[in-house]
Amino acid sequence: MVSIQCLTHLKSNLRTRLLLLFQPKTKQSFLRLASSKLRLLSLCCSISSANAFQKGTSLSKEQTLMSLLKKCSAMKDLLQIHARIIQSGFEQNLFVIGKVIVFCADSERGDMNFAVPVFENIGNPDGFLWNTMIRGFSKTSEPLKAFDYYKRMQGKGLVADNFTFSSLLKACGQVGSVLLAEQMHCSTLKHGLESHLFVRNALIHMYGMFKYIETSRQLFEEIPSPELVAWNTIIGCYVYCGRCREALDMFSRMLKFGIEPDEATLVETLAACSALGALDFGKWVHSCISNTGLGSILEVNNSLIDMYAKCGAVEEAYETFYRMKKRNTITWNTMILGLATHGQTNEALALFSKMLEQKLLEPDGVTFLGVLCACSHGGMVEEGRKFFGIMSKEYLIQPTIKHYGCMVDILGRAGFVEEAYGLVRSMPMECNAIVWRTLLAACRLHGNVELGKQVRRHLLQLEPNHSSDYVLLSNMYASVGQWNEVMKVRKSMLNTGVQKPEPGNSFIRMHPSRSKD
Q1: Is position 34 within any domain?
Q2: Dihedral of alpha carbons 64, 66, 68, 71, sign
Q3: Which residue, among 438, 433, 378, 429, has the nearest Cα to 406 in the 3D structure?
C-alpha cells in the first residue's frame, strides 16, 4: 500500500517538473529534485519488498516444516521437527501441529505418549485433531483412552462424525466389552450414522471380533449394494470365527456379483483354504490371479505359500517361492516352516542357510521357530542346541515359550529328558501345560517314571482335568509293567469324571484314475 502511494506521488511530481527540463536556469534544481524523488522511490520499493519477503518467509517456513514432516520416519526425527515448530512459532498452527499428531497416531513408529502433551498444548483443537487422538489410542494397548477423549470432545460441544465412531467401534473390539460395543452402536443410531459406509464396516468387524457372526452377517445383508471393503470385512469375520467354509461361500458369492477382489480379499480367502485344507479351491484362486497384477503382490504370494504348505502341497509351495522376484522375512519363514512341518529337515535347514548367505534379511523369532521345528522332526539334537544358542547370542532374539517348547521336544525325543526338565525349570517365564505335556510324553516314550510323576504334578496345578494327561501317565506305567498304577490312574480318571474326547476324523484326498484310450 505504501509503495503504490509513493509511486503515484512521484509520477505526479515528475510530470509537473518535466516541462522545466529544457529551461537552462532550472536544470540543476530539477536534477536535484529528481534525485531526491528517486531515493524516495527506492525506499518505498524496499519497504514493499521487505513486506513481501516477510510474508514469503512465513510461508516458506510452513512449507519447510511440512516437507520435513512428510519425510519423517522415526520419533527421533519428529522430536527435532517439533522443536523447530516451536522455535518457528507454529505450535498453534492446527495444520502443522496436526501432522505431528497424525504421525504419532498412524505411523508404526509413532508414540501416542508424545502426542498427548502436544495435543494438550493446543489452545482450541478442531474435530480433526480430536478424531486423530481417538484413532491413535484405538490402535494402542490402552484403547480405553480413546473413550476418554471422546467424552472430552463431547464436553467441548464438538459433534462426533463417521471417523469418530469408526475408531471407537474398533476400540470396542480391543477392550472386549460387549456392553460398551452395544452402547456405541446405539450412539451411531442416534447420530444417524449406522448406514454410513465406514461406520457400517466397523460395526460388522466389531461384532465379528466378538464372534457374534450372525449379527455381523445381518448388518452386512442390510447393505443395499455392498462394496469391496464390506465383502472383505465379512469374509475376514468368518475366517476369524473359524467358519471358513462360509468364508469361501461369501467369496464365491462376491465374484458372482461382479466385485473384483483385491489383495486383502485373497489373503483372507487363502487363509480359509489353509484352515480347511481346501487345496482345489486354493489352486483355483491361484489360477484366477496368476496372470493379473494381484499375482505379483508379495502378501498374496506369501499366503499362497502358506496355503500350499498347510494343504500338504510342498512342491507347489516351493515353486511359488522360487518364482517370486521379491521376498521378505515372512516369505522365508513360511517356506522354512512349511518344509519343517512336513519332515523335510535338510531342505528347511538348507533354505535357512541360503537366507543367511544372501545377507539381505535378518532372521527373526519365527525363523528360528521353523529351524528348531526342523531339528525336532529330524532328530538333530546338536544342531538344535546350536541354533537355540546363536538365536540369543548372535541375533539377540529372546526365546519365547514356543522356542523352549521346541527345545524340550528335541531333547525329549532323543531321550535327554533330564536335560529337558532342567531347561524347563530355567525358563524365564512360567511354563504352560503344552510344554509340560510334551515332556510327559517324552517320559512315557523313554520309560522315565519318576520324572513323569514330577511332571504330572505340575500339570495337575495347571489343567487337572485334561484327559490326555491321564492317558499319557497310564501308558507310561504300562510301558514299565506297573499295572497297579495303571488301574489307579484309570480309577482316578473315572472318579473325577474326566472323559476322553470323541475320536477325531481324517480323510485322504484321492484323484480318480484316468484310463488311457
Answers
A1: yes
A2: negative
A3: 438
CB atoms within 10 A of CB 201: 23
Cell 464438538 locates to 158
**Would 448 be classed as within a structural domain?**
yes
Q: How far apart are CA 337 and CA 348, in angstroms?
A: 7
Q: Which of 287-296, 404-413, 457-466, 489-498 bottoms out in mean pLDDT, i.e. has the lowest? A: 489-498
Other beta carbons within 10 angstroms of residue 388's beta carbon come to 21
Report phi then psi at 344, rounded to 5.
-90, 70
Residue 9 lies in a domain: yes
How many structural domains comprise the chain? 2
Cα–Cα distance for residue pair 288/282, rounded to 1 Å? 10
Contact 198, 168 (CB under 8 A): no
The residue length of the chain stands at 517
Contact 489, 474 (CB under 8 A): yes
In single-letter form, the type of residue at position 46 comes to: S
3-state secondary structure 143-204: CHHHHHHHHHHHHCCCCCCHHHHHHHHHHHHHHCCHHHHHHHHHHHHHCCCCCCHHHHHHHH
Alpha-carbon distances, residue 401 vs 261, 404, 422, 423, 425 (angstroms): 38, 5, 15, 11, 12
- Residue 360 makes CB contacts below 8 A (sequence gap 6+) with none
Which domain-ending residue is among 50, 73, 88? Answer: 50
Q: Which residue has the cell 469375520?
A: 237
> What phi, psi does 487 have (nearest 5°)?
-65, -40
DSSP 228-253: HHHHHHHHHHHHHTT-HHHHHHHHHH
Cα distance between residue 393 and residue 387, in whole Å: 10
Residues 6+ apart with CB under 8 A from 314: 308, 338, 339, 342, 344
Residue 289 CA to residue 309 CA, distance in Å, equals 19
Helices (H) and strands (E) in the chain, counts: 27, 0
pTM of the model: 0.78
- Give the range of the structural domain holding residue 419, as residue numbers without chain letter: 400-497
Strand segments, DSSP code E, in 453-505 are none
For residues 431 and 458, the answer to whether their CB atoms sit within 8 Å is yes
Nearest alpha carbon to residue 102 among 57, 66, 64: 66
Q: How far is the C-alpha of 439 from the C-alpha of 433, rounded, in Å? A: 10
CA distance 254 to 225: 11
Instruction: Report yes or no on 265 lying in a domain.
Output: no
Residue-wise pLDDT for 53-105, tens only, equals 334 456 688 888 888 888 888 999 999 999 999 988 898 989 999 999 999 99
Instruction: Please say which residue of 50, 69, 86 terminates a domain.
Output: 50
We report the CATH number of the domain holding residue 440 as 1.25.40.10
DSSP letter assigned to residue 212: -
Per-residue model confidence (pLDDT) at position 250: 97
